[in-house]
Write a structure and sequence with these properties.
By secondary structure, the protein is mostly beta strands. The chain has one domain: Jelly Rolls. Helix content is 2%, strand content 43%. The protein has one helix and 14 strands, in the order ββββββββββββββα. Strands 1-2-10-7-12-5 form a six-stranded antiparallel sheet, with no helix packed on it. Strands 6, 8, 9, 11, 13 and 14 form a six-stranded mixed sheet that branches. β3 and β4 form a beta hairpin.
């Protein structure tokens, strides 16, 4: 596995080694032995499907003690995946990084605790799978407004498809972390 650090400390791009032949291909998508810097034990796997290009999901996170680290990959179609630093005392607070994840490039993104997560679909019929190191907890879940000007993510579109819940999300400055 090739591991690339991003400008946000702890956010990693993971590129599995793919072995292919005339039959198809094989890859190891996760190995605790090979990627010990995750520093977490994954306890839940999740999968989402988005039918339309331009579907935006996020910016989501869970507050302590139920925060989640995530290891994400796109197994059908393509997304631009985003991590946002929401740690108030961090030197990269409110900064974000975006990485294209697709079924073709097979890249994965590791997002540790202290970060919000979002993605926008770049194609129709997209499936995203991710591991989480803590269980989903509705009472600890929060959403930051996708268009928060203090964060300023370039989504690549002015009119994404957004859920009613995400349309009603708060600005980061309104949320006590």
């Amino acid at each position: 596995m090739k591991i690339t650090e991003t400008k946000l400390e702890g956010v990693l791009i993971i590129e599995p080694q793919v072995f292919g032949d005339a039959r198809g291909w094989f890859m190891e998508t996760y190995s605790k032995r090979k990627v010990p810097q995750f520093g977490c034990e994954f306890v839940q796997d999740n999968q989402s499907f988005s039918a339309q290009k331009g579907t935006l999901r996020g910016i989501h996170f869970q507050k302590p003690p139920m925060e989640q680290a995530k290891l994400l990959r796109c197994t059908r179609g393509s997304i631009m995946d985003f991590a946002v630093d929401i740690r108030p005392n961090s030197k990269t607070y409110k900064q974000w990084v975006g990485v294209e994840l697709s079924e073709e490039n097979k890249k994965q993104l590791f997002i540790p605790h202290g970060f919000g997560h979002a993605f926008i679909t770049l194609t129709d019929n997209v499936e995203v799978q991710y591991k989480a190191d803590n269980y989903y907890s509705p009472q600890h879940e929060y959403s930051i407004l996708w268009s928060d000007p203090d964060i300023g993510i370039d989504w690549g579109t002015e009119d994404p498809i957004v859920s009613d819940r995400d349309k009603k999300a708060q600005l980061l400055e309104e949320i006590t972390i």
